[in-house]
Design goal:
With 108 residues, the protein is an alpha+beta fold. It is built from three helices and six strands; from the N terminus they run βββαβββαα. The chain has one domain: NE0471 N-terminal domain-like (2-Layer Sandwich). It binds zinc ion (2 copies).
Length: 108
């Protein structure tokens, strides 16, 4: 996948209900994430072992109905979330969010 600045610059970020988040990117692409999916992709030190990249959490054990209580921007480059399980230590850089876009055309 090609990464450029416009593909990782969001022009709109909005919650769709309590369970998902929609990001519209500057290149027109729209990503729809469930908060559960975002929680599974948390890359904080409590979820991912820093040196090996090994996941320290059981991603399948995360509640199916996990919701997002808060969405906050961190600087101009990232978002952070407060999930309904109170996890809030992850910082999601925009280029990372674009990279993990779950839509079919990004997964290929
Ligand atoms: Zn985490
Ligand atoms: Zn996509």
């Amino acid at each position: 996948m090609i990464m450029d600045i416009t593909s990782s610059t969001p022009v709109a970020i909005k919650k769709k209900g309590n369970r998902s988040l929609q990001i519209t990117w500057e290149d027109g692409h729209v990503s729809l994430y469930s908060f559960r999916y975002l929680r599974q992709h948390c890359s904080c030190a409590g979820c991912i072992e820093e040196w090996t990249g090994r996941k320290l959490i059981d991603t399948e054990a995360i509640a199916l109905d996990l919701s997002g209580l808060k969405v906050e921007s961190t600087g101009n480059y990232a978002l952070s979330f407060v999930f309904s399980d109170n996890h809030n230590t992850g910082i999601y850089h925009f280029d990372y969010l674009r990279k993990i876009c779950p839509c079919l055309s990004c997964k290929e």
